[in-house]
Amino acid sequence: MARDMVAGLLAASGHPAPVALVETARLLVSEVVANVHLHTKVPLLSPEATIRGPAMFISHLAEQRRIFCSQAALS
To answer: What is the pLDDT of residues 25-50, one digit of tens each?
Structure first.
């Protein structure tokens, strides 16, 4: 679901993202989710994706703090 969320965010933002960028963003989501699962005891995953200018930030929020984050350039 998280991988589809980030692909949908890129589509909804109107950003002309090439297929390679969408796949990179999906990979980053997978990495963040895997790191949370492996290195924390958080019972609920809360991925967050944000587009800021030419970059996309993918992170996981736990107990009101960002614990894992990845970034991809959109251009």
So the answer is: 888 888 888 887 788 777 777 777 77
CA dist., res. 72 & res. 20, Å (int): 11
| Cα dihedral sign, 8-13-19-22 | negative
Strand 65-73's sheet: what is its strand order? 47-52, 55-62, 65-73
pLDDT at residue 73, as a whole number? 65
- What's the pLDDT band for 71 if we cut at 50, 70, 90? low
The model carries a pTM of 0.65
Q: How many domains does the chain have?
A: 1
CA dihedral (9, 12, 14, 20) positive or negative: positive
Cα 72 to Cα 75: distance, rounded to the nearest angstrom:
9
